[in-house]
Amino acid sequence: MIRFDGRDAGRVATRTRRDDALWEEDVYEVFLTPEDPPTRYYEFEVNPLGAVFDARIDSPRLRRPTICVDVLWDCPGFGARVRTFPGRWSARLTIPLAPLAPGGVPQRWRANFFRVDRNAPDELSAWSPVGLPVDFHRADRFGTLILD
């Protein structure tokens, strides 16, 4: 389970369907993989309206020009709960790890966590910096998580 909490002076969210282009509006995003190097990773998103997005991404060279995004892939058990408050919103994403690691769930994962806030001007935040120009699909910049 992953939780986000963020201030938000003006929400930008209209999309309500699963696997819509949520990243074009306000969104929290999680990128996860048990692979190192992260040539295949998984993307999970939720917006303030509770719409979710999940995809499996193959990135043979760890950069955007070579990625192949499979939006038809759905992670079994993935879900999100959103709460909105004046001036902020929070989300709890439930991401089962077993479907991402068919050979067994390892202790070490590569990951990144992002927030997109489209209230002018755009604010793009990352747990592990991705450099400039901003591109969240820099798998070579994912951080490392150790699960206990």
Structure explained in plain terms:
The protein is mostly beta strands. It is 0% helix and 42% strand. The strands form two sheets. Strands 2, 3, 4, 5, 8, 9 and 10 form a seven-stranded antiparallel beta sheet that branches. Strand 2 (27-33) and strand 3 form a beta hairpin.
Key terms:
mainly beta; Immunoglobulin-like; 148 residues; seven-stranded antiparallel sheet; globular; 0% helix
Termini distance? Answer: 13 Å
Number of domains: 1
Shape: globular
Determine Rg (CA atoms, Å): 15 Å
Percent of residues in helices comes to under 10%
- Uncertain regions spanning at least 5 consecutive residues: none
Helix tally equals 0
Largest sheet: 7 strands, antiparallel
CATH architecture: Sandwich
What percentage of amino acids are in beta strands? 35-45%
Order of helices and strands: EEEEEEEEEE
CATH fold group: Immunoglobulin-like
- The strand count comes to 10
Assigned CATH class = Mainly Beta
Average pLDDT confidence is 94
Q: Structural class of the secondary structure composition?
A: mainly beta
In short:
This protein has 148 residues and is mainly β.
Topology:
Blueprint: E1 2-7, E2 27-33, E3 40-46, E4 52-58, E5 68-70, E6 79-85, E7 88-94, E8 108-117, E9 123-126, E10 143-146
Antiparallel strand pairs: 1-7, 2-3, 2-8, 3-4, 4-5, 6-7, 8-9, 8-10
